[in-house]
Design brief:
The complex is a heterodimer. By secondary structure, chain A is of the alpha+beta class. Chain A is built from 17 helices and 19 strands. Helices cover about 30% and strands about 20% of the residues of chain A. In chain A, helix 10 packs antiparallel against helix 12 and helix 16 runs antiparallel to helix 17. The two termini of chain A are about 45 Å apart. By secondary structure, chain B is mainly α. Chain B contains 14 helices and no strands. In chain B, helix 5 crosses helix 8. In chain B, about 40% of the residues are buried. Classes of the chains: A alpha+beta, B mainly alpha. At the A-B interface, helix 8, helix 14 and strand 16 of A face helix 3, helix 5, helix 7, helix 11 and helix 12 of B.
């Protein structure tokens, strides 16, 4: 009897273990149905030709770059190389490339493919957006200007070894992980119809593109990570309307969806849907950028007064429905140079009034605020801050424009202030250079910020070889910036991805949550798309 | 008949030229450009040097008259230019969208004619009855509904609640994915057709020749099918033509909502991204469709009403 009982207990334990293993062991096969939520079409499936977040959703599946962002470790990792050695002066990088990476046409990747791809990006007649990253490589600008045919800073040592010489002492991974620097096969990318029949190194190969509807990809069996990808098929379905996406998600027609503030509240309140929510503080900082050419904003006290006058927490809670994190500096929390001890500006209208009076504006002033319709950082937010600023005597005149025009206005600098969302990572040094005095307005210094102390910290950081010391310098610069308040620090985007219970391996990628590495994603047998 | 066709075709050319000029000028004065719009998602991807080069490559820095002249010459050669966004020829970009658009427009119009004309006819034959009231409430509601809201309600009811149909997408291009967007798009013209048909039929029913036909002892069925239907049809065909022609342009909202890969969704995306060649190509396509349908309607008049033929 005891023997029988023991047998029963053992069998039950084995069954339980098997069940648990079935849940955690990735299943081979099935279809992943991801959504592309940002526009009603894809721009281009040629990764060099497009800088858009929407296009990178597909390009991450079909193409690969020298580096990748490892979400679990929150850092850059080598992707197409197995190792790298750096010269003493920090300018020469020697990569031992993967010898097991194949393009979808069956050809093995070599150092020539990296050289050809980077040279293609620098073709000045094409105006490829990734040129800004490759320009870091010595001699790349000569190719862009048509003064050379080859990038002198790229040297093939053998098929699997590549030497890259850079011009600045920075981490090249921040530049060479961008989707616009993907490695492509010359024989395919040279064809005129490459964008409609893309070939890359990624875990999924192209199958079908119905413009305005979907891109379908199939598993690439010769992908270099053993056993991956898991799924047979990856569909990226265009769904630009949030309300329609919501219906499709609830109807189990899609596996993932991006949530806006209103849906975020509804999903959190739902006992079932709330179990499938992935959140991350994305590397985007929302801010009201002051133009110092408008006299009151040239005074630090006025800029600080605006920060004190606005109850940012209230706006985030009530209007943005907690779908954002309060900004406590320009750099986001995922940045290595973020100071975790930073405290936000308190909501203190009295202090704001005092600062305004000290600055010579005891009765306040009036300014024009350019804004778009964006629900998270546009007109609704401007409408919320208007009464708050009115309480300290500042009158806001909103000026509504299309989001497409915001950058053009910032570059011209004819505005008084403008509210927008800015990419603030992952490279802290490059991000803070938006406030470096030598950075022209057209290259990103939209607040015409000029502070010698800040400049010196950035110069020192650029020269510093030790990563920890460099981050300390950048941390100081970031904190100084917060005190100088060239902007009203509003929030960091909280990106929210809703997912079905049968999909696993999704990553909370802070660089852009829709950019998933689909080789790690799998669907269990409960998925309705078998 | 050939003369009518010739006259209509002769009118098409100046109309097209006017549209081309208007669209070109309108988008030339709009603020923002494709290149500055590349930063719309806040990724800061634009580099000033690249911007400058792209502007030059796309000819955006050329003087306006020069750009316009180049554009008109290209159109005359059947070349709509290259999309800024995809770098593909615009003709190819639009080419793949035309068939889904046509499918949607024809399905929506079929729904509108079938339901709208039937409702209007039934309502007119029994004016003041319950059927008339219900039909007209239905028609007025259809006219007042927002396509976006109505489309969402269709999704909610037929996809989420009843699980009869997919809520979005093109699928394999079959009828299951077509039904909901077609109804959402067709409800407006359906309502208009119901009201127009009712008014037209009532008008004809009170005409002298109908009274004469009845007094001659002709059966009501023959009066309606022989005299009323044919005469009322002229007005109905006019509305069908106008609605049909404008449906491709009106499909913008429905296509975006249902992720339907037609010309409308391409247009809205291209406008937001200031992809000028694609915008101009899409509008030209929509106008051409409108003009083609109107020409067909003119020909249909001649077939339906012999008096129009004699007037020549």
């Amino acid at each position: 009897m005891r023997k029988l009982m023991w047998l029963a207990v053992s069998a039950a334990a084995m069954l339980a273990a098997a069940a648990a293993s079935a849940q955690t062991t990735p299943r081979k096969g099935g279809t992943i149905r991801m959504t592309a939520p940002y526009a009603a079409s894809f721009g281009s499936l040629d990764p060099h030709a497009t800088p858009r977040a929407q296009d990178d959703i597909v390009n991450k599946a079909m193409h690969r770059t020298l580096y990748n962002w490892d979400t679990a470790q929150n850092k850059l990792v080598l992707e197409l190389a197995k190792s790298v050695s750096v010269s003493g002066d920090g300018l020469v990088y020697t990569y031992k490339l993967r010898d097991d990476a194949y393009f979808h046409n069956g050809r093995k990747m070599t150092a020539d493919d990296l050289i050809w791809s980077y040279t293609r990006i620098m073709d000045g007649s094409k105006g490829f957006p990734g040129a800004r990253y490759i320009r870091l490589i010595k001699g790349a600008i000569d190719v862009e200007k048509g003064q050379a045919k080859e990038i002198s800073g790229l040297r093939k040592i053998d098929d699997n070894t590549l030497e890259i010489t850079i011009t600045d002492r920075v981490e090249p991974g921040y530049y060479l992980f961008s989707g616009t620097t993907a490695i492509l096969p010359k024989e395919e990318a040279s064809k005129p119809d490459f964008a409609s029949h893309p070939v890359g190194l990624g875990p999924f190969k192209f199958k079908e593109h119905i413009p305005g509807s979907r891109v379908v990809m199939e598993r690439f069996d010769k992908f270099y990570k053993p056993g991956k990808p898991y799924a047979d098929t990856l569909q990226v379905l265009i769904m630009a309307e949030a309300a329609a996406r919501d219906v499709a998600f609830r109807n189990k027609e899609i596996d993932t969806s991006i949530l806006g503030p209103a849906q975020y509240v509804a999903y959190r309140a739902d006992p079932q849907l709330s179990k499938g929510i992935l959140e991350v503080a994305e590397m985007f900082t929302r801010s009201l950028q002051f133009n110092p050419a408008f006299k009151p904003f040239a005074d630090k006290r006025v800029r600080q007064a605006v920060n004190y006058a606005i109850d940012s927490d209230l706006i985030i809670k009530r209007l943005v429905k907690d779908k954002a994190y309060r900004a406590v500096s320009w750099l986001p929390p995922s940045s290595a140079a973020f100071d975790k001890t930073m405290k936000p500006y308190a909501h203190d209208p009295e202090k704001a009034k005092k600062l305004l009076a000290e600055a010579g504006y005891p009765n306040g002033f009036e300014f024009e605020l350019t804004t778009s319709q964006n629900e998270s950082w546009g007109l609704p937010i401007v409408e919320a801050i208007m009464p708050m600023l009115a309480k300290v005597g500042i009158k806001v005149k909103p000026k509504l424009v299309e989001a497409t025009v915001l950058t053009e206005i910032l570059m011209k600098g004819e505005h008084q202030s403008l509210i927008s969302s800015s990419l603030t990572g992952p490279d802290s040094l490059a991000t803070l250079r938006a406030f470096y005095s030598k950075t022209p307005r057209t290259a990103g210094n939209y607040t015409s910020f000029n502070n010698p102390q800040f400049d010196k910290l950035l110069d020192d950081a650029a020269q510093e070889g030790n990563a920890d010391k460099r981050n300390d310098l950048l941390k100081k610069a970031n904190n100084l910036l917060y005190d100088e308040a060239p902007v009203w620090f509003f929030n960091y985007n909280k990106a929210v991805l809703a997912h079905q219970p049968w999909i696993h391996g999704l990553q909370a990628n802070p660089t852009e949550i829709t950019h998933q590495y689909p080789e790690d994603i799998w669907v269990d047998d409960k998925s309705p798309a078998k | 008949m050939l003369l009518v066709l010739g006259r209509r075709l002769a009118n098409v050319i100046p109309t097209l030229l006017a549209v081309v000029a208007l669209v070109f000028l309108l988008f030339s004065v709009l603020p923002g450009s494709f290149i500055s719009g590349m930063n719309e998602d806040g990724r800061g991807a634009i580099d000033p040097a690249v911007m400058e080069r792209m502007r030059k490559e796309m000819g955006l820095d050329d003087p306006l008259p020069e750009r316009f002249a180049k554009y008109v010459i290209s159109i005359a050669q059947g070349d709509l230019g290259r999309s800024f966004r995809t770098r593909e020829p615009v003709t190819r970009l639009i080419g793949v969208r035309v068939w889904p658009s046509l499918k949607l427009v024809f399905a929506a119009m079929s729904f509108a004619i079938l339901v709208g004309v039937t409702l209007g006819f039934v309502a007119a034959l029994r004016p003041g009855s319950l059927v008339d009231t219900i039909s007209m409430v239905f028609a007025i509601s259809g006219l007042s509904l927002s396509q976006f809201w109505f489309g969402l309600m269709l999704m909610y009811l037929f996809a989420l609640q009843l699980q009869w149909l997919p809520s979005f997408g093109y699928g394999d291009g079959g009828i299951r994915h077509l039904i909901l967007p077609a109804i959402a798009l067709g409800v407006g013209p359906m309502a208009l057709l119901a009201r127009t048909t009712r008014a037209a039929v009532l008008d004809v029913l009170n005409a002298d020749f109908v009274r004469t036909a009845r007094s001659k002892g002709m059966s009501e069925r023959r009066v309606v099918s022989w005299h009323v239907l044919r005469n009322a049809l002229v007005l109905v065909v006019t509305i069908v033509g106008l609605q049909f022609g404008s449906l491709m342009g009106a499909a913008v909202v429905v296509e975006k909502l249902f992720a339907w890969p037609g010309v409308g969704s391409l247009l809205v995306d291209s406008v937001f991204q200031r992809d000028m060649p694609a915008v101009q190509g899409c509008i030209l396509m929509i106008v051409l469709f409108f003009l083609a349908i109107n020409t067909l309607v003119d020909i249909a008049y001649v077939a339906i009403d012999p008096r129009i033929r004699y007037r020549r």
